[in-house]
Every structure is written in structure tokens, then in C-alpha cells.
Amino acid sequence: MKYLFVGLLFCIVLSNFTIVLGTNLFDFKPKPNRDIANAEKCFCKLSEEVDDCGCKIEQIDRLNNYQIHPRINGLVQKDYFRFIKLNLNKICQFWSDDARCSLKDCHIKACNQEDLPASFRKIISLKENQDQVSGCEQTNPLGHINSSLSDESLKAFEDMKKYDDAQDSFCEPDDESNAQAEYLDLVLNPERFTGYKAPHAHKIWNSIYRENCFENTDRVAYGPEKNACLEKRFFYRLVSGLHTSINIHLSARFLHKGVLGQPDVWGPNPEEFFKRFDPEKTNGLGPQWLKNLYFIYLVELRALAKVAPYLEKETFYAGRNQQEDEDTKTAVVDILKIATSFQHHFNETNLFRGNPIEAKKLKEEFQTKFRNITRIMDCVGCDKCRLWGKVQTLALGTSLKILFSGKISSDNQPTKNLFQLSRIEIVALFNGFARLSNSITEIENFRESLSNCKLNKGMKNQNAEL
Ligand SMILES: Cc1cc2nc3c(=O)[nH]c(=O)nc-3n(C[C@H](O)[C@H](O)[C@H](O)COP(=O)(O)OP(=O)(O)OC[C@H]3O[C@@H](n4cnc5c(N)ncnc54)[C@H](O)[C@@H]3O)c2cc1C
Hints:
Elements: H1 2-14, H2 20-26, H3 33-44, H4 57-75, H5 79-82, E1 83-86, H6 118-139, H7 148-168, E2 182-185, H8 200-212, H9 230-252, E3 254-256, E4 265-267, H10 270-277, H11 286-311, H12 322-341, H13 356-376, H14 383-404, H15 423-451, H16 455-459
Antiparallel strand pairs: 1-2, 3-4
Helix pairs in contact: 4-12, 4-15, 8-9, 8-13, 9-10, 9-11, 9-15, 11-12, 11-14, 11-15, 13-14, 14-15
């Protein structure tokens, strides 16, 4: 009943009834007709093709909204995908005044050991057991095995593997064995409005876009350089698409302050969305930023399709519930099938071509810059934003690793034992892609709520989180 009431008011505001009550309750102003007209203008532009890809926005909307989104949204709720082990306490390497924001909505709800599925808890108890075993060995000389040689070989092997992985990798994933790394429940800590804003948030975005500026200049590149090569435009579009996705989520899960004793309500805020993407308010750039979301979506979709044969062999074992583990595997295979059957994939082979020495140099430069972006995430001052920033940059870094690793053959078969993804990379890959998928459905929701105010549709994403 409460949501019906909230929804009714939501629609009243959108229908431009200048009712004072609606303004107060949701803390947004009634929309003049001009804004609706702008909305039409803004979204009409999105009916074109996605740059450098051979497909139209509508094709991606159809694929995502009807096939991918319902599936991936369910998948990331499952045990294997909802828990991720990250270190949110890493020191910012770039500047010292990384004041952690004390906003209530920035806080992360920690995960109790008892809430974790057995397999994740086992990692801890296995380690404890190992410690106990080595203690026993010391007290029993007969049982003692001289492991010094194998330790050395093991270390050499580990170093080789690290070197090998580093060649492929576009990020620096958190070291899961670090004592400060802890399991976090992504379902319990959804990405939404936190109130994190300028100047801190701008400092982070500035630094990220500066990485896009491949020359050593102080100019902050909020767009690709003039006549930039394909790789540099690619880099900019990925970052911009990620930025778009984050800003769509905070607009779609906005905190509407309750007045007159009413509780606060989480729900969509179309005015926030338009403020961020309306061409008039963004120097005409808003529609391009939205298109960049579709671009990054296509890149991650292609990565999933490419790595499908590898992922189909994974077990996705969490160990709390056998049936759920089986369902998880089935759901992954199902999504991969859809991803693989898409006709208009992004073609990564167009990048890093030409003169092999130049191409290699450019790829390394690209890798270094992307790794820096993942390090910048340790400087994000709001824990919740840091968590999702890390997950999403890791997802993108994992996608780039898949696309450019060279250890997956042209028929998408990973070279035996050479190509590897860690659990954290797999979990981030699916969660990051799920975020992009969700953003695309949110665009559709905003479009629908603004063009025809149907109560049911407008209410689709109202959340009951308080
Ligand atoms: C890693 C990270 C994660 C975050 N997560 C959250 C979160 O979960 N919840 C939350 O409420 N806030 C989050 N924020 C903050 C949020 O992204 C904004 O920075 C904040 O709301 C302030 O917005 P703004 O209007 O000042 O512009 P900002 O979004 O900060 O953008 C700064 C400038 O960048 C340009 N710009 C904007 N969008 C794009 C684009 N898509 N492509 C290219 N250029 C663009 C514009 O010129 C704009 O003025 C996060 C910030 C960062 C850096």
C-alpha cells in the first residue's frame, strides 16, 4: 500500500502536475514540459549504431532486456557469485589525503563467517589445519620431510606463473591471502546513491580520465584526444561507459528523503538522471556517454563469448546447497550460450594491429594505464563506491585480459593449462557485466516513466530497502 501511494505521487510528478505535496515528499521539482521534450531528443539519438561496432542500440536493448538481464540478475544472487574477497583497506598510492567519507550510505555491511558458504569457510579452516600440521612435523623428526628443495621449486614456479599472469593481466587483483582481505556480500551491499560527490569524487574521475591522456600532459582528458587512434578512443569509451553505468545506478536507486515523519524511500529519480545526461546540461555529450555504456557492454559480452569454452568447464561450487550449485552451473551455461549466439560482437582483432613492435608497445602502455585505474580505486573515499568501483574495474580488466591474452585460440579454445582465471576474476566478471546489463534496463525504465506514465512501469524498480 505504501509503495502504491509512493508510486502514485511519482507518476503525478512525472506527469507535470505541479502539486506541492509531490515536490516536498520526494525532494524533486515538478518537471516542466521542456524536460520531457529533451528526454525525447536525448533518447532519439540512441537509435543509431554503437561506434566501431556493427550493431544498433535497439538490437542490444532487445538482447539485454529480454534475454540477458533476467538471467544474469538471478545468477549474481547465487552463493558462488554474491561473495567476493577484497581488501578495502589498501593504502592509496597516489595521494595522502584520501579522506574516507563518513556518509551513512557509504558504509559496508560486513559478512559474518557463519553466513559464508562452506567452501569459502573451508579455505580458512584448511589454512589453519596446514599450520597445525607443520607444527606436528616439527615435533616428530621421523615424520619430517625435507621440503626445502620443493619449496624453492614451488617459489620459482609461483614466480614464473606470476610473471606469466602479469603479462596477460590488466589489473592488480587484491591478494586474497592478505589478512586485511575479507569476504563481502554484494547482495547485502547494493550499488546505489551514497552521496559521494565533489571534490573527492571529481578528484578520482579526474585521475582516471587523465590515464586516458596517453601523452604526459596535465590536460585532463574528459574525451578522446583529437585524431586519437582506435586504441585510445577504445580506452576512453570504456571508462566513460563505466562512469555512465555508475551514475545511472545512483539515479535509479536514489534516496528520497521522507518528510513529515515519513520514512526515506529508495527509488528512481528521473530528474537526477536528466541532470546527468540531458544534452542541454552536458554540452551535448550526454547521449554519447549513454552510448559508451552500450560500447562497454558489447566489449564485456564479447569477452564472455570468447571465454565460454573455458567457463563451461568450471564447477561454480559454493557448497551450501548442492541444488543451488547445479542451478548456478546451468544458469552460467545458459547465459554463455546467449552471449555466444549474438551476431554482432565487438571485434577485438581490430586493435593492437599494424607494426608488431609499435602494437606491442601500445598494448603494454594500455595495460599500465589500466592497472593504474585499478589502483586509483584504493583512493575512492566512500567504501560502498570503492567496493563497486573495484568489482567493476576488475570485471573490465578481466574482459581485456580475455580479449587480448593471446592464450585463447581463434576458435575460442583456451590453450591447455596456460590461460587461467581466478575465482575473484570470474565473480567480478559476471557481477560487473550484471551492473552494465542493469544500467541498460534502467535507461529503458527512465524512458518509459518519462514518456508515458503508467503506474506499473513507473513502479517497476521501486525498492523497499531502508
Ligand atoms: C569509482 C567511483 C564509484 C562511485 N560510486 C558511486 C556510488 O556507488 N554511488 C554514488 O552515489 N556515487 C558514486 N560515485 C560518485 C558519482 O560517480 C559522482 O562522481 C557524484 O555523484 C558527483 O557527480 P557530478 O554530477 O558532480 O559529476 P561526476 O559524475 O562526478 O562527473 C564529473 C564530470 O565528468 C564528466 N562526465 C560525467 N559523466 C561522464 C561520462 N559518462 N563520460 C565522460 N565524462 C563524464 C562531466 O563533465 C562531469 O562534470 C562514484 C565515484 C567514483 C569515482
